[in-house]
Structures are given as structure tokens and as C-alpha cells.
Amino acid sequence: MKLARTIIGARADVAHLPRPLALVPTMGALHEGHLALVRAARSRCAGVVASIFVNPTQFGEGEDYDRYPRNEERDLRLFAAEGVDLVFAPVPAEMYRTGAATVVKVDGPLANTLEGASRPGHFDGVATIVAKLFTIVAPDVAFFGKKDAQQLAVVRRLTADLDLPVEIVGVPTVREPDGLAMSSRNARLTADEREAAPRLYQALEAGRAAAQTGGAQPGAERAAAAQTSVAPPDTSAPAVVVAVVGAALATEPRFAVEYVAAVDRDSFLPAETLGERSLIVCAVSLGTTRLIDNLPALPSPAPVDGARHDTSEVEK
């Protein structure tokens, strides 16, 4: 496995790799979810490039850029064990040179709602670094995790709008045995917070159960959901699902809920009805750690590979 620290070096090394070529962009602090991306890439492509770069432009003021976990030595060992051909691990000054004045921006509700509203400028940073990585590595296929569903949708939109010759593949979320979505930030949870964290997934499962019954709720759940709303309740299926998730989250006092929504997975507009494109998404703060997660409202059959993934297949 080769390691490149500069753009010039990465391009030189990429020129000698076989095609089709995969890119797995990461911010390091690897876990099983990242390795699932590498394995998906390895199964599809002859050459695999992974990047390690904690991108400063996607962190807002007061966010955890300086505290984001970093362990490059371990990351490189894991990538080598998975058969990665090249790791591109630049420093910020290599990717953002003095005087740089260009930002890639995806506009509209897709990038400005939910995560975009909670973290202003976040998706500008994501779109800019992804565009730069695509330009430097020139991959045929790029692999992203479905846990960051809105990010995946932004990357798809970016790629389509700029006619970039890269296929975007979404890989199912990998979870701990108790359902918690794997994330580098999970390492910052205290023991007490880690005990509470799986209730986020449990709340999403309750919402999906309501979705599968067309929004119908048992009496106790309906009463609990009604208590969370001042306005007369919306009885459409998406609204009922959101109310069920909100009520479940409200039973965990350690959660500070940022948002719960049922959306179209591509546009991130509110879902008017529930179908195969609908996602239930949510974000909470737990202590000093921010957790996001999502589930398809109506699951597809689970992939049969022995790992615990969400019940949704790899998307292209």
C-alpha cells in the first residue's frame, strides 16, 4: 500500500493503478462502517484509493474539529489489511492553499434543511472537498455510507449537476449489536451516554413499525405522540411516523432532540406519503456528542452477508 501526502504525489500514484478505480473518502478514526465501504469498493473495482482528511471547512464555529478523533497509524494498518492500494492523507494546507477563493455549493432545500440548517456551511465544505477529491483521484466509483443520508444525497446532486464521471454508491449503515450506528464520534460517549445512545435507533424502529402499518398507532403511542404537539395533530402517515419517533425520543431525558423528519431520500423534501424512497431521519445531542441516524420507512430485504446492516441494499 502506498501513502501520498501531496496532490502531485497522489496523481502520480493513481496513474499506475488498475481500472475501474474506487475512492473511499474518510476522515479517519476508522471503524467497521468504514471498512464495509472498503470491502464494497474492493468487490467492485480493481484499484482502491482511500483518503484520510479531517476537513476543516465542513466544521462550523464551535463544532468539534479540534476534538475530532484522529489515529492515523491505526487507520493505515486497517486500510493495508483490507487491501487498499493507495491512501491519500494530506494536511489542510495542501488541500486549501493560501488565497483559495472557490467554494462548491449545492443550493436549495437539499442542502439547507435539517443537517444544513443545524450546521450552516457544512454542506459547502462537504461539496468542496468531495469535488477536490474527485478531481485529484479521478475515480470511476466512489463509496459513501448511508448513515450520513443527507450528505449522500448532496454528493449525488453535486455529481449529477457537474456531470462528473463518477458513479456514487451508497453502502448500508453498519451497527453495533445493540443497534447504535457506528460513528467515529461514538468514542467520545461516556459509559452512561453509551447506555442511552441505542434508544435513538429504537425510536427509529418504532417509527418504521408505524410506517409499515400505514401510520396506525396503538392507543398508548397515539396518546404519547399527541402530548408532544400543541397544534391539532396531522394524521397523515408521515406526520404520525414523525410523532411516534419524537415521542420515543422524548422518553430518554439525556437526549436533546434537534430534528425528526420523514423525507424523500434524494431531495430531502418532506415526504407527502410513505414509499420506497422515504427515509425517517433524526439528530440528537447526547452530552457533548451529536448523533444522527436514519432508517428507510419501508425496508428492503436485508443483504445476506453475516454483518449487521440496515435492511436496505447497496444503492447506485
List keywords for this structure.
316 residues, alpha/beta, Rossmann fold, Pantoate--beta-alanine Ligase, Chain: A,domain 2, three-stranded antiparallel β-sheet, 12 helices, 9 strands
* Annotation field: number of helices: 12
Indicate the CATH topology of the largest domain: Rossmann fold
Chain-averaged pLDDT: 91
- Strands in their spatial order, largest beta sheet: 1-4-3-2-5-6
Low-confidence stretches: 216-222, 302-309
Give the helices and strands as they follow along the chain: EHEHEHEHHHHEHEHHHHEEE
* Straight-line distance between termini: 27 Å
Global Rg = 20 Å
- In the CATH hierarchy, what is the architecture of the largest domain at level 2? 3-Layer(aba) Sandwich
Overall geometry comes to globular
What topology emerges from the helices and strands here?
Layout: E1 2-4, H1 7-14, E2 21-26, H2 32-44, E3 47-52, H3 72-81, E4 86-88, H4 92-95, H5 109-112, H6 115-118, H7 122-137, E5 141-145, H8 149-161, E6 167-171, H9 191-196, H10 199-212, H11 219-227, H12 237-250, E7 255-264, E8 278-286, E9 289-296
Parallel strand pairs: 1-4, 2-3, 2-5, 3-4, 5-6
Antiparallel strand pairs: 7-8, 8-9
Helix pairs in contact: 7-8, 10-12, 11-12
What does it look like?
With 316 residues, this protein is of the alpha/beta class. It has helices at 7-14, 32-44, 72-81, 92-95, 109-112, 115-118, 122-137, 149-161, 191-196, 199-212, 219-227, 237-250; strands at residues 2-4, 21-26, 47-52, 86-88, 141-145, 167-171, 255-264, 278-286, 289-296. Strands 1-4-3-2-5-6 form a 6-stranded parallel sheet, with helices on both faces. The longest helix is centred in the middle third of the chain and has 16 residues, at 122-137. Mean pLDDT is 91; it is low at 216-222 and 302-309.
